[in-house]
Model the fold of this input.
Amino acid sequence: MRPEDEPLDFLDQEPEPAAAGGVAWKLLIVDDDVEVHAATRFAINGIRIAGRPLQLLNARSAAEAAALLKTEPEIAVILLDVVMESPNAGLDLVQRIRHELGLGDVRIILRTGQPGHAPELNVIRDYDINDYKTKAELTHTRLVTALIAAIRSYDQLRTISENRRGLEMIVTATPSLMRAKDLESCADEALRLMMSLLHLHGDGAVCVQGGIGDNDGERPRVIAAAGRVAGAAGRPLEQLGDADLVAAVRECLARQAHCFAASHTALYLQGGQRQAVMLVRSERALTVVERQLLEIFAANVLSCFGNVTLVERLNHIAYHDPLTRLPNRTCFIEELNKAGASAAQGSVVCMIDIDRFTDINNALGHAVADQLLIAVGQRLGQACPGCHLARIGADTFGLIGPEQQLAPERLQALLQEPFAAGDQLLPISATIGLCRITGSESGHALFNRADMAFTRARLNPHGGPLYFSPDMEQHTHWRLEVLRQLRRDFHDGRLAVWFQPQVSLADGGLSGLEALARWPDRRPDAGGFTQPPGVFIPLAEESGLIVDIGAWILDQSCAAYSRLAAEGHAPRRIAVNVSMPQMRRPDFPERVARTLAARGVPASALELEITESQLLDEPQLVLRNLQALKQEGIQITIDDFGTGYSSLGYLRQLPIDCIKIDRSFVVEIDRGRGDLFAETIITLAHKLGAETVAEGVETAAQVRCLRNLGCDTVQGFLYGRPMPADQLAGWLEQRALH
Ligand code: C2E
Ligand code: CA
Ligand code: CA
Done:
């Protein structure tokens, strides 16, 4: 071994076996003396430093050197003559190298023929000159040793620069990673960064995510890809299209650690129940520095992945219904926004509500009801591919799609088959409202329109699905306005309760009074009533205001009864109408009992009128409350009988005391179909052991007929119109005179 060879292996001590393989260190000789070029070439012939050979570049003048430095990258060392075209040409060149060309890493060894031309010490320091030797001093050994030192220094500087560049890249790139909205774009960006960190140009790079732990079954999939496999993003790993890469990914997933192989680099990322591999194909092994940088990079990417996954999860929660896994109302309205903006021709938005769902829930339990919802969602989804399906309410689904696919008849036919839920097959019916998407309406506007159509359809359960029409909008505005006034007037104590007498056909005496709500308009110029109860009661029912109004009416009725009783005019009973929202309250029977007690009215003096349609709404709930009321001793009357669809079997279960024959059947008595309906109802009532009250009685002929049929009580304008409580005594006295 040559003594001068000894320090040559300095870089080999670092574990960079094939570090940049045979890439030569570039050595630039700048000298106007041809001899020097030849001598230097001879002196360093065959030498390798840190396993790499030297490549010589030659320049005969400072000018030539400057030109060459501009085009030739990564020159490690310059052997520079001081005196060339001018006595200071060498030093001038050093200044250009450092300041103009901005080359800070290249090492410079000054050589001069005469000691007299030695530069000042401060020059050596300021220009970052490595070494200064007279040509005589630069013997073979000295030259090589100086070169080794310079190259080592150059290499360290390069490493530091490279490090800084990498770190800077990681630091500046992190915000762009953090900004990524979803995992896919985050992975794309991370992959791009990884390749530019490694100076690779995107051949066969891939990023794969798969589950571990509880998620073990989840198949790894490609979430971002570049280079030849770029098209594989979104596919399962097996379909990456490059067996070597697939194997490398699998190996990395199995080892759960970074893999730095000669052919590829794979970074392993793990967070929570997820793991990912970022794999880049490379033709060379990485330097220690590159590996360290990648480790920092991987930690950064991982936290960005964690970030986007969290954001994605939050987004998912914000936009999805956990039960059916369908998009929720918020998401649906956003889809509607898009559909409205694009005025998707021939598209409709549709709302489908399961009828009597609360009842299913109460009767069969939440688990079965949940399964029903899931089953309905699934069937709708399968039957309407390409449409946007969402769960927009507890038992309401929304759909956006082409009109022919969402035709109401088609949807109804679709829901006809019973649904499997629990171990039952449940038949359901649904209410459907639709709205055509025509102009550029906002999502909210479209939603509201479909909702209006739906609300209308619900008000008329047997009328079938309804499309939105502009008059519905006007109607809605009007309704909201009326409701606002009603709420205000109710709170200001402006409502009134009037009473209509019921007369016993047996003895002609006052058998009862029906309490009827009135909304008087107290404005001096408005004679009469603001809205008839047939209008404002349904509004109050829809808004829930009826719960308070109803409680107040019950209280007023009891108060009126007490007063009449005190005056010796007490009728047998006082009848009060009850709406579904009141009946739906589980504590309704207790509330009634409290009111009776507070007003000192016996339970047997109270009769509650429930419409037949109410009985059908939520049969189980209604039945439970009716039984509780009945136990208290309160009378139960079915109002508007014959206008609903209750089955005889169902009616038998109910604790009914009385049936009211609807005015429409009483009217028939004087008309075409005669007494057929009245007779049927009276017979039925008697079979059920219930009394009958005929309402809307206006003629003596009706009374005769009803008496013949065995009807017990009559109520109608023939006897008396509804009147304020304080007019009742007068009415009674007048009757007594007849
Ligand atoms: P309803 O319970 O069937 O009440 C009977 C309706 O028929 C009353 O209308 C009454 O004024 C009317 N009527 C009585 N006799 C005759 C007659 O001989 N000829 C004609 N043409 N009509 C007659 P009203 O007061 O307008 O009430 C309409 C509906 O509003 C009621 O029908 C009831 O469903 C509801 N309603 C009224 N007050 C209340 C209330 O306090 N609570 C609840 N929940 N609903 C009420
Ligand atoms: Ca009634
Ligand atoms: Ca009625």
